[in-house]
Specification:
Layout (H helix, E strand, L loop, with lengths): L2 H18 L7 E2 L6 E2 L7 E7 L16 H7 L2 E7 L5 H4 L7 E5 L30 H4 L4 E6 L7 E7 L6 H11 L2 H11 L2 E2 L15 H8 L9
Parallel strand pairs: 3-4, 3-5
Antiparallel strand pairs: 1-2, 5-7, 6-7, 6-8
Length: 228
């Protein structure tokens, strides 16, 4: 089996899991509009506000593209607004046109967020256990995406957050599920020199390499207290 064929099989498998994230037994009441959403219906688009480099469609580098296969699998057209720093989010977030935000964990007021139904994310159980004590995760208002070494302070975690006025709920959940897949996790980590939030992404990805996670975690041993 050729490398391209293997990639196609992986994408097909991930697509099936992603579509599961769009289904529930009962319709979902969107707090943003009080409209009952058909859980089997996919919206036409997904609006994301994120830091630059978090939404790659192959335009900057053909090697990094986790948008095109998502759109092909779900039918959700991704429209991204990319910013250069976390300080710029406050000026953009009031436009009410975004469904998801990808930013530093503490960058948004809680009243702008809605809780995330983790039961809709089949891959949620694959999340690194180190995030189990993350306060935003415990409150169900954030989904860890990746983390980065920042010496000598504790590591920085970037998360996905679902906005309270989100309109494209099913596409939003599909994107969150897609973002937890090992391939996308590894590609993001390779592109941004970070560490995946899903340990399974640390091996078997040509772009990231099998040693990258171990090397990057060794530089910031968050499971150990620093020496006095």
């Amino acid at each position: 089996m050729t490398a391209n064929k293997i990639v196609q099989v992986i994408i097909a498998c991930v697509a099936c899991t992603v579509l599961f994230a769009c289904k529930k037994d009962n319709p979902v009441d969107s707090s943003s509009s009080n409209v009952i959403i058909d859980p089997l219906a996919m919206e036409a688009e997904l609006n994301i506000l994120a830091m630059d480099g978090r939404i790659e469609s192959g335009k900057n580098s053909a090697a990094f593209d986790w948008v095109t296969p998502f759109e092909a699998a779900t039918g959700c057209k991704v429209k991204a607004t990319l910013l250069d720093s976390n300080e710029l989010f406050a000026n953009k977030i009031d436009s009410n046109k975004y469904d998801l935000v990808i930013a530093a964990d503490s960058s948004l007021p809680v009243d702008l967020l809605q809780t995330i139904d983790f039961s809709r994310l089949r891959s949620f159980k694959e999340l690194d256990k180190r995030f189990s004590e993350n306060s935003s995760l415990q409150k169900k208002i954030a989904l860890p995406l990746h983390w980065k070494k920042i010496n000598p302070v504790p590591p920085s975690t970037e998360v996905i957050k679902l906005l309270v006025k989100a309109q494209n709920i099913n596409c939003a959940y599909a994107w969150m599920e897609w973002s937890l897949s090992p391939k996308v996790q590894a590609d993001i980590a390779a592109a941004l020199d970070t560490i995946p939030a899903v340990p399974a992404a640390c091996s078997g990805n040509e772009l990231l390499g099998d040693d990258a996670c171990e090397q990057r975690m060794a530089e910031t041993p968050i499971d150990k207290k620093p020496n006095p």
